Every structure is written in C-alpha cells, then in structure tokens.
Amino acid sequence: MTDLNTAVVAGTGAYLPEKILTNQDLEKSLDTSDAWIIERTGIRERRIAAEEESASTMAAKAGKQALEAAGVGPEDVDMIIVATSSPDVLFPSTACFVQNELQAFGSAAYDISAVCSGFLFGLSIAEQYLKTGRYKHILLIGSEVNSRIVDWTDRSTCILFGDGAGAVLLKRVEQKNASGVLSTHIYSDGSLSDLICVPGGIGRTGINKQDIDDKKYSIKMSGNATFKVAVKRMTQVIQEALQFNDLGIEDIGLLIPHQANERIIRAVAERLKYPMEKVLMNIHKYGNTSAASIPIGINEAWRSGRVQPGDTSVLGAVGAGLTWGSAVIKW
Ligand code: UT7
C-alpha cells in the first residue's frame, strides 16, 4: 500500500421513495401508538417503495446522482459495490442490475451483505482498492427495500424500518495527506447471529411453504439485547477510529451514525461525551434504512453544506451478523 493515494468522496446521491408511512398510519393496523414509537425510537415516519421499485432501481437513482455530482461518467467507473440485505433476487447481484441501468459496463459489480454495517464494510473494500492504486473510481451504494422483508403484523419490528438508497462516488487522489477516507475499522461476531435475522432458509432448507407461513422470511429481532450490544460496539469502534487517527472527539465536526434508534444514538453520544447538536439525525423522517442509512446521511450533510472542506467526520454502525464498523472521513 502506498501512502501517496487517498480515497476522496467526490460526489453523493440519495433516493427516497415518495410514499410516506406515518406512525398514525401504523396505528390503524397495529396495537401501537405514535407516542410509543416516538418515545422508544424517535421515528415519526418512513418511506415505502412503490410496487415497481426495488433495491436496484433505488440504488441506480442514488448512484446516478453521485456520478453527476462528481462529474464522473458511467464509463469511468471501475467498481460498483451495493450494500444490501434486501436484494432484488438471490442472484445475480443487485449491483449487476445497477450496472446495467447506469450503463457502467467497464466496472466489476457485486453486493456486500453486512446488513446495517454494509456501507462501512463496502467503504473498507473501496478504500483498499483506491489506496493501493488499483482503481480510480468506485461507486458505493447502500440500498434497501426493508418494507418487503418485515412482518407487518409484528409491531416490535415493522415500525422501525424504511426504504431508500444512498450513494457515494469515491475517487483515488494521488496526494499525500489529502482529504478523504482516513480509516475504516470493521468487525463481526457470528455467535450473535440470532439477535437480528431473517431465519428462513434458502441454501440451508430450501424455500418451503411452512417457513413462509411461519413468516420466517421476515426480520426477527431481540430488540433489547440488540440495543445494549449496539450501544457498546458503536461506542468502542468509534473510539478505536479516533485513537487510530490520533484525534480527540473535539476534532470531529459531525458524527454520522447508522440510524437504528434515536436512543441508541443518544447513548453513544453520551458515552463519547459528544454534543447531540453535532450528530446527524434523520431517523424521524426515514426510520432504519439499514445499509442505506449512512450514505443517505452523508448525502444530506454534503448537500446541505453541513460538512465543509477540511472538516472531519466519524461514521459508525452496528447491524445483524453481528457486524459493526467505523470510518473517519476528512472532507
Ligand atoms: O439496525 C440494526 C440494529 N437494530 C437495533 O439496534 C434495534 C435495537 N432495539 C431497539 O431499537 C428497541 O429495543 C426497540 C425499539 C425494538 C424496542 O424498544 P424497547 O424499549 O427495547 O422495548 P421492549 O422490546 O422492551 O418492549 C417494551 C414493551 C413490551 O410490552 P410489555 O412486555 O412491557 O408489556 C412490548 O410488547 O413495549 C411493547 N412494544 C410496543 N408497544 C407499542 C413493543 N413494540 C411496540 C410498539 N408499540 N410498536
């Protein structure tokens, strides 16, 4: 690895479906309340994909925006990575559909399955390819159509999730100590795979009617246990990122956390002794969009001017697997 290359965010994009599902809408079909959802999660509404939309169609829209913002043509993209846990089909990868839609035929395109940490796992891969000098432009997208994999009768999970996509175009810049991705740290603990999962078997048991009837092809979560480990792991991995870069928390201009639950984010900020005013929050609008949540947040920060050249941000996520990770970006 040469330290002459950095991986710079050259453009961002996002796509959120038009349809809004509010807490009040959910009150009509579930034994829940707007007040409970806001108090326990911070979520007020979430977006739901239209019938003709899917992870690939949303990803392509977000990806196109990121390319346009970066001024990079589809023919110049070397790699497309789509982080998703709600792919269009089992295979081929959602990224191949995106490649076709964008006409980016010079790229290698594939998916990453690390659920809510997927964007950070993808960022870690992109960082290596760019810093080693192997590639010049990588389009990294998080896209989820969670509404198709939740059990709409399970009030403990369906209220949490939403659909959407976010994208960044990462560019290799040959310059020492330039801005860009300063670090990524990623981890997994397969002994905690039961905490959040879609248990229905594909290769394990084949898709079978009993599992479909038992709603095993939708998200199951041990909310409380996940909450505790999420706070612990996200705090730890952000601290590790700061230490690695010799930064103090006061050097961070914006924390962009995965949006799973407002209380998780507040608990992490409290442990880091970091002010909530400097935390990007959009969970009230979109709920938990899994792998899409961090790039949607990045796009919001980038386009609103909340991050300026020279600023430093830290990103953090925890997701099913269990997986977790962090990254530091200098804009
Ligand atoms: O993105 C990947 C990472 N995901 C996460 O990190 C999610 C982590 N977990 C959470 O966000 C929270 O655990 C939840 C929001 C899922 C649940 O909040 P909680 O404060 O942990 O509630 P709980 O599961 O302890 O349930 C408390 C009560 C229960 O009733 P009883 O047993 O005390 O009578 C639930 O049945 O709240 C009840 N409840 C609800 N009530 C109204 C659960 N869901 C609902 C609901 N509306 N939607």
Short summary of the structure?
The protein is α/β, with parallel strands linked by helices.
Which keywords apply here?
13 strands, 2 domains, Peroxisomal Thiolase, Chain A, domain 1, binds oxa(dethia)-CoA, alpha/beta, 331 residues, 33% helix, 11 helices, 4-stranded mixed sheet
CATH-level-2 architecture of the largest domain: 3-Layer(aba) Sandwich
Whole-number count of domains: 2
- What is the oligomeric state here? single chain
CATH homology superfamily of the largest domain: Thiolase/Chalcone synthase
The CATH C-level name of the largest domain is Alpha Beta
Distance between the termini: 22 Å
Kindly state the mean pLDDT as a whole number?
Answer: 97
CATH topology of the largest domain: Peroxisomal Thiolase, Chain A, domain 1
What is the CA-based Rg, rounded? 19 Å
> Helical content, roughly?
25-40%
**Poorly predicted ranges:** none
Sheet with most strands: strand arrangement: 1-7-6-4-5
In N-to-C order, the SSE pattern is EEHHEHEHEHEHEEEHEHEHHHEE
